[in-house]
Structures are given as structure tokens and as C-alpha cells.
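Why Metallophosphoesterase family protein? Reviewers of the renewal asked for a concrete example.
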Amino acid sequence: MRILIISDIHANLEGMEACLAAAPAHELVLNLGDIVGYGASPNEVTERARKLGRHFVRGNHDKACTGVSGVDGFNPVAGLAALWTMKELTPENLEFLKALPQGPAKVEGLENVQLVHGSPLDEDEYIIVQRDAYEPLAKAAAAITFFGHTHIQGGFSASPDGQWGTIRPIYKSKDKLETFELQLAAGTKYLLNPGSTGQPRDGDPRAAFLAYDTEKSAITFHRVPYDIKAAQKRIFDAKLPDRLALRLADGR
Ligand code: ZN
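Here is what the prediction returned.
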């Protein structure tokens, strides 16, 4: 089966559309949460995401933007965007986001895979560096855990002979459509992050996602240029904090 994994769309319609347009043929879409928050197209991306499939886990912004959690842990800019999003969402979209399941989630027919937003041990935890990955990998209930939350494309691995590794895709540019292949090794456990579709923070402003071919045991990380100026204009027009628009150009 060929699967798309997307995460952290953050109400960026232009980023999302560019990723879907660049995506290879696939039979399934898995969504790792933070569909909304930060960006200015919460209804459009929620409706688009709902049409893509039924496999989701909720993100911290999905919770904050729908009242499942408060905005207390958020910085002022994120909090403001969450409150704006809550007002902007249609009742139907709000109910959908509110009902998103907590990870880890399993996918029928994919016994070796689980989905989480942050960590398999805590949905709101960030796995940023290799040290953060030790416990989640050691305790992971599946060979492959797809995670998001950090907006950093790549991941971590633990091989049966005790070798730990960090996976960071290498690209030639920061403005062209590019892919990076990773062949999965049998018996090795992986934590894999598709990166953020709507607000990359790994210094690469291109929208990010990954494709997983189960028959080939192959992961293809993608980076996709998109109309950043259009996404920024929507944020300015919505009178959301400027910072949310400006950071898109830097991928920070
Ligand atoms: Zn996020």
C-alpha cells in the first residue's frame, strides 16, 4: 500500500494544496494533527482534511482551538491565533476537530504502524533530539511510529543490535521540489516525522510531508515550494499577528 503522511497543516491552505498536488499516487492518507492554529484558513483545511480520509490523531492546537484544552500553555501569539480560530470555525468543523482521537492510534491493516502527534508516551511531548527519542522508541508498541508536533522533518531509529540513529533528509536547495529516500531496515524501530505542511521550523520554508510504500518498505520525504506570499496575505488580512506570516518565509 502507498500511504501519505501529513502533519501540522496549521490552517495553511496554500501549503496543504501544494503538498497534495505534489504527492505521488496513494491509497491512504494519515493525518498527525494540528490541522488548525496559526494560519488563516481553518475551515478550508479542515474540510479538505476530512475529505482525505478518516485516520487522524489530535494535536495540541486542535484541542486549544476547540476548547478541549485551555490556551494557558501557549505563548501569547499562539493563544491569540487559537482564540481567533475558535471564532472562525464553523460549528461543523469545530465539532469534527473537537472529536479527533488522542494518539497513539492504530490503523487497520497496518499492524507495524502507530500514529501520534507528539510522543507515544505523551501526546503533547516534543521529540526534538535523539535523547528525547530513547524512551519512546524503546517502549513503542509498533515498529514505525509516525509523529509530528516539532515541525522538523526526519526522525530517529533503533536497530536490533543496539544502534541508535538520527534521520535528517538532505536536500540540494530550499526552493525546488525535492525528495529524500529512506529504505527501512527489517527489525529496526523508527520514529518518523513528515515535517509540517503549514509551518516548517527546520530552516526550510518548503511545505513538508512523507510517503510510505509498505511493499517496498520505503519512505520518501518531500519538500514542496508553495505560494508563501498568498498564505502570508491571508494572515495579514485576518489581522492575526504579523509574526505568524513572517516566519513562513524563514521556515522558523
Ligand atoms: Zn503543530
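Residues 175 and 225 are 6 Å apart (CA to CA). This is the kind of structural detail the renewal will allow us to pursue systematically.
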